[in-house]
Design goal:
With 298 residues, this protein is mainly alpha-helical. It has 13 helices and 3 strands, in the order H-H-H-H-H-H-H-E-E-E-H-H-H-H-H-H.
Length: 298
């Protein structure tokens, strides 16, 4: 697998993916191909379409994986066979399972305030505020630089986001004030990264994304909402949903979130209270005998 792994790595780099993306892909792809190979006790380059078909069935029946996970496994195998081994791949013989759409967890504005107020450390507090105020991904927040904060135009520059794309998002005046307080509280002023790593925030590298995860989970526990499984992306969903409820249009939200397709953004229509309550339930329009009276059992 060492030689094949090197070819997979080269194929990913040829596509100019970010190193973080390559790291994620290579871990997923190698794990899938090795698992596929072990299942049949043969080298993957000795296996063919019939083995892939059997493996896909086993992912559901034996390992009970979710449809979306099976899709990821098939995508990894497809990349391996098409890009690494230079073989054909039949979509008809290897259909992707039907996607399952789960609505993301969203907090109310009051719950977001509770979460931020429950942050154990000032550093965690400013990270949570930045996540919610910008709707940025956790890696994008972690890699913000001091020069990305444009207080003249009141925008934040997000550099090299998903797909190596840059974009601007609004700079909240409340966030700007909080950032200034955070800056004054730093004993050693950073020269590059807005949120430097290590416990003293003095490192020459940015904070780890794991710190953002910990900030969310610890604050959720202290706020008494840990049952909602809060993570950094939850605040991104809250950002989009609350903007929609406040009257922002989908196209603007799509641009702020850096969604490639508007269809990705329409999921927030299912979460917006304003849109859900715009049309009343048909039950409210009918008269039912004995309304307001307790129902008698048969």
């Amino acid at each position: 697998m060492t030689h094949l792994r090197q070819i997979m790595l080269e194929e990913l780099r040829r596509r100019n993916y970010a190193e973080s993306t390559i790291h994620t892909y290579i871990h997923t792809y190698i794990h899938t191909v090795e698992h596929f190979s072990r299942h049949f006790h043969h080298s993957p380059d000795q296996l063919g379409p019939e083995h892939i078909r059997q493996y896909q069935a086993a992912l559901f029946t034996r390992w009970k994986l979710a449809p979306n996970t099976v899709t990821q496994r098939l995508a990894a195998l497809r990349f391996f066979y098409v890009q690494v081994l230079k073989r054909g791949w039949s979509v008809a013989e290897t259909p992707y399972p039907k996607k399952v759409l789960h609505l993301p967890q969203v907090l109310s504005p009051e719950e977001v305030a509770r979460l931020i107020d429950a942050a154990e450390f000032p550093f965690h507090r400013i990270l949570l505020m930045t996540l919610y105020a910008t709707g940025a991904r956790r890696a994008e927040v972690a890699h913000l630089k001091i020069s990305d904060i444009d207080s003249q135009r009141m925008v934040i520059h997000i550099r090299g986001g998903k797909g190596r794309k840059d974009r601007d998002v609004m700079l909240s005046s409340k966030l700007l004030d909080a950032l200034r307080v955070y800056w004054r509280g730093l004993k050693r002023k950073p020269t590059d990264w807005l949120f430097p790593g290590n416990r003293w925030h003095t490192a020459s590298h940015p904070v780890s994304t794991k710190v953002l995860w910990s900030a969310c989970q610890q604050a959720a526990e202290r706020a008494g909402i840990e049952h909602k499984h809060i993570h950094p992306h939850t605040l991104r969903h809250c950002f989009a949903t609350h903007l929609l409820e406040a009257g922002a249009d989908l196209r603007t939200i799509q641009m702020l979130l850096d969604h490639r397709d508007l269809e990705e953004t329409t999921i927030y229509l299912h979460l917006s209270r304003r849109h859900l309550s715009a049309t009343g339930s048909p039950l409210d329009a009918i008269t039912i005998r004995g309304e307001g009276e307790p129902t008698q059992s048969a």
